[in-house]
């Protein structure tokens, strides 16, 4: 079976009806013509037979045959005229039905009788004019400071009503003038402007407008204003900003808050400025170091002293100094100071008296166990290395009662550091000593552990 072409159009019901009507008319006309022709042929044959039987009447039969042929022609012409008129009427009827047919019939769906009856020409809807506020309401109570704060805060203040004034940029909101106001949190609030001036205000779009009247915040992000007075200012043309002039970063004095960050562990990295810092003077190799906080622990903050003012500091080793200069904190655990002035200060914490204390002493790196009496002391002395410093964890220092971490200079050999502990809680503790970078305590060269048993 041959499939119908996909692009072929299906015959509509109106076309089918027209086709059937046309074929019926043609059939009826052809039947009439055939009957008339059959009668004439029968008469002609009868006349010819009569002529053969009676040769004397030969002349009279010929005219009868001619008359019969003429009548056949007339009947054929009449039949063709009737067929043409019928076809024209069928075409007119088909055109009228196609014009009145709804969209459903065009798509191939036969519309129902109700749908055909309801089919009417569609007319575009007429837009109704929007109601505009032309009358001003009576004056209300003036807005106080709290009301204005709620009014200008995005997300709050719905329902606030009162007399006041607003400033902002004029814009159009669905054909109505709206005032875009910058709120407290730099967020935009939109207020529709009403009143007799509502027809005039759209001429000032993108102007800076100040209005005064009855303000109603209908939502948390806007509302309406019944305008009693307004003034508009044309926005000034923005001048191109001058190119920034590159200037040297001028050093400034650090504030007390910034100084507290400079001497705190893990804070203030990248800060630079004039300041006066106080701490204990130590050495690492050939460089002088000022330890300003957390001495002897892995949270120690220290600064290398350099510049002309750093000369002749060897005689102050182990003492407390006040150093003034340009502080540059490169990491959370210290940096450098370009020294301008150095002054010797008394120690902030007086050294604890060791008289009457039973002291256990550990010399060098020994992974051993020691017994200490409660409220007495033990010391650990370790040899320093250039660029490195011995330290312990801050929690261990607090648990074992670290009192001092003294830097000691020896004329015969390298410097050393003495840790002085006075444990206050009985029990067994393990303390680990780290030899780490002076300004990077996370970088450890080596370590060892010491087991301490505190007896009551």
Automatic annotation (TrEMBL):
Native species: Cystobacter ferrugineus
Native organism taxonomy: Bacteria, Pseudomonadati, Myxococcota, Myxococcia, Myxococcales
Basic residues composition-biased segments: 50-60
Ranges annotated as biased composition (Basic and acidic residues): 90-112
Domain of life: Bacteria
Protein name: Transcriptional regulator
Ranges of biased composition (kind: Low complexity): 9-28, 35-48
Region of interest: Disordered: 1-65, 90-144
């Amino acid at each position: 079976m041959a499939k119908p072409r996909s692009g072929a159009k299906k015959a509509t019901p109106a076309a089918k009806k027209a086709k059937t009507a046309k074929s019926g008319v043609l059939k009826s006309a052809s039947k009439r013509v055939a009957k008339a022709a059959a009668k004439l042929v029968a008469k002609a044959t009868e006349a010819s037979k009569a002529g053969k039987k009676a040769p004397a009447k030969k002349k009279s039969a010929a005219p009868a045959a001619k008359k019969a042929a003429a009548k056949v022609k007339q009947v054929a012409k009449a039949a063709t005229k009737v067929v043409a008129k019928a076809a024209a009427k069928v075409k007119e009827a088909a055109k009228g039905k196609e014009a009145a047919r709804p969209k459903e019939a065009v798509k191939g769906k036969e519309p129902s009788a109700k749908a055909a009856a309801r089919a009417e020409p569609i007319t575009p809807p007429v837009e109704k004019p929007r109601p505009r506020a032309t009358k001003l309401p009576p004056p209300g109570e003036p807005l106080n400071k709290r009301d204005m704060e709620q009014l200008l805060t995005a997300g709050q203040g719905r329902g606030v009503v009162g007399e006041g004034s607003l400033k902002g940029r004029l814009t159009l909101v669905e054909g109505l003038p709206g005032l875009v106001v910058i709120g407290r949190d730099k967020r935009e609030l939109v207020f529709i402007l009403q009143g007799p001036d509502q027809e005039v205000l759209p001429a000032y779009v993108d102007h800076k407008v100040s209005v005064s009247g009855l303000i109603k915040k209908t939502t948390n992000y806007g509302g309406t204003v019944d305008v009693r007075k307004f003034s508009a200012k044309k926005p000034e043309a923005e001048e191109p900003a001058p190119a920034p002039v590159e200037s040297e970063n001028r050093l400034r004095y650090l504030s007390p808050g910034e100084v507290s960050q400079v001497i705190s562990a893990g804070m203030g990295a990248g800060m630079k400025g004039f300041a006066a810092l106080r701490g204990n003077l130590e050495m690492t190799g050939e460089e002088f170091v000022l330890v300003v906080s957390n001495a002897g622990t892995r949270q120690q903050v220290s600064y290398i002293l350099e510049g002309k003012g750093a000369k002749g500091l060897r005689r102050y080793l182990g003492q407390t100094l006040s150093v003034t200069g340009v502080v540059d904190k490169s990491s959370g655990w210290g940096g450098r100071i370009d020294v301008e002035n150095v002054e010797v200060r008394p120690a902030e914490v007086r050294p604890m008296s060791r008289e009457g204390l039973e002291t256990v002493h550990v010399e060098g790196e020994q992974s051993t166990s020691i017994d200490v009496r409660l409220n007495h002391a033990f010391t650990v002395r370790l040899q320093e290395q250039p660029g490195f410093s011995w330290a312990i964890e801050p929690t261990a220092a607090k648990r074992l009662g670290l009192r001092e971490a003294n830097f000691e200079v020896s004329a015969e050999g390298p410097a050393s550091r003495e840790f002085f502990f006075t444990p206050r809680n009985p029990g067994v503790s393990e303390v680990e000593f780290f030899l780490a970078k002076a300004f990077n305590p996370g970088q450890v060269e080596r370590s060892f552990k010491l087991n301490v048993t505190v007896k009551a």
